[in-house]
Write a structure and sequence with these properties.
This protein is about 85% helix and about 0% strand. By secondary structure, it is mainly alpha-helical. The protein has a domain of about 40 residues. The protein starts with 8 loop residues before the first helix and ends in a 7-residue tail after the last helix.
């Protein structure tokens, strides 16, 4: 029975050289290779294939872990950007509050200055009023003696007794 297989030129040349070096032909060399392949101990091959499968599953697991870590990293980057924008917003609000505070403090200083001025003015007015009250009381003591008596008083006491 014949079996056909296509091989590339490089493999064909290597078969020719191997057959020449062994002093055999290609047909016997290929038949020996097939026989050796079919009757070899497959336990090593099975172990190698199991090991390969295990390594592939570990590699797939690491790949999934890597993808998960990348997703977490991207989420963290988005959170960081959100926090930065929030920080910028809070900083602008803080600057606005500081400028408002500065404006308010300058207004408070001006109002305090005005309050002190009003207090001084009121103090001067109080001093002037107390001076005028004292002067009024002195004048009111002197005025009744200097003024002529009213008509009612003059009739009641009589003109001769009025000056007593």
């Amino acid at each position: 029975m014949r079996v056909y297989a296509e091989i590339d030129d490089q493999t064909n040349r290597e078969l020719d050289q191997a057959a020449i070096s062994k002093g055999s032909n290609k047909k016997l060399l290929v038949a020996d290779a097939i026989d050796l392949y079919l009757h070899q101990d497959r336990s090593e091959l099975d172990l190698a294939m199991k090991e390969r499968d295990l390594l592939r599953s570990e590699q797939d697991q690491r790949w999934r872990e890597l993808q998960q870590i990348r997703n977490e990293l991207n989420q963290t980057k988005r959170d960081l950007e959100a926090m930065r924008s929030k920080e910028d917003l809070l900083r602008s609000e803080l600057d606005q509050a500081r400028s408002s505070e500065d404006q308010t403090s300058s207004e408070v200083v001006a109002l305090r200055r005005d309050l002190e001025h009003y207090k001084q003015t009121l103090s001067l007015k109080d001093d002037e009023i107390s001076f005028l009250r004292g002067h009024l009381s002195q004048i009111s003591e002197k005025i009744p003696k200097a003024l002529p008596p009213s008509q009612e008083e003059a009739k009641k006491k009589g003109w001769w007794r009025f000056w007593r």
